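In response to the reviewer comment on reproducibility (Comment 2.3), we provide here a single inverse folding case reported in full, input and output, so that an independent group could reproduce the run without further information from us. The structure tokens appear first.
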């Protein structure tokens, strides 16, 4: 029997702590916003069975999106999740990579075709900017976004690109614009985690 996913913020934090996948401090996120919490998604996705269980718990919601022909995720963090979602849905999984100008590109012969229905997949989102950035691959190919899937949703959103956003975990950690960082957070030296360049 599939274990239910956490529902409350307390349950979610406890779940992430099992994997050492949450850290407290002062973080500058890729969105340019500041936060007192950082979800260390790499420490979560290194456990594929746990991730598989999370995905399986959301398969009914994903299947309700209708036909999905291809999963599209951003490198590097989204690749592992995208592969597992593609496996669960029985479709192909591709990914976009950043070039030296920090722009996302489809490389390695990956393409989208007219009429294909695409599921955008990411490990963690805060603003959803990276997935919105990938939208031009879909529209440029006359394909269609079927919806979005993320393991951890920090965005407070239930839709992205006017399509449903399906997530396994939702965390309600506040984030702050650079000129709105509260004093208690500003007193802590800032760390820039991750590899993506700050916008």
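Designed residues, in position order:
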């Amino acid at each position: 029997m599939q274990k239910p996913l956490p529902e409350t913020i307390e349950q979610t934090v406890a779940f992430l702590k099992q994997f050492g996948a949450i850290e407290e401090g002062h973080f500058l996120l890729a969105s340019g916003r500041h936060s007192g919490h950082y979800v260390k998604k790499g420490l979560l996705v290194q456990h594929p069975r746990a991730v598989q269980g999370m995905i399986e718990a959301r398969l009914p919601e994903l299947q309700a999106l209708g036909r999905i022909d291809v999963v599209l995720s951003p490198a590097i963090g989204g690749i592992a999740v995208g592969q597992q979602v593609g496996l669960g849905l029985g479709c192909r999984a591709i990914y976009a990579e950043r070039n030296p100008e920090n722009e996302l590109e489809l490389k390695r012969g990956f393409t989208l075709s007219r009429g294909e229905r695409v599921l955008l997949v990411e490990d963690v989102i805060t603003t959803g900017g990276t997935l919105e950035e990938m939208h031009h691959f879909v529209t440029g190919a006359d394909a269609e976004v079927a919806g979005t899937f993320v393991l951890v949703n920090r965005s407070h959103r239930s839709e992205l690109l006017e399509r449903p956003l399906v997530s396994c975990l939702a965390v309600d950690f506040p984030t702050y614009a650079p000129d709105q960082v509260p004093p208690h957070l500003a007193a802590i030296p800032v760390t820039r985690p991750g590899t993506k360049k700050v916008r």
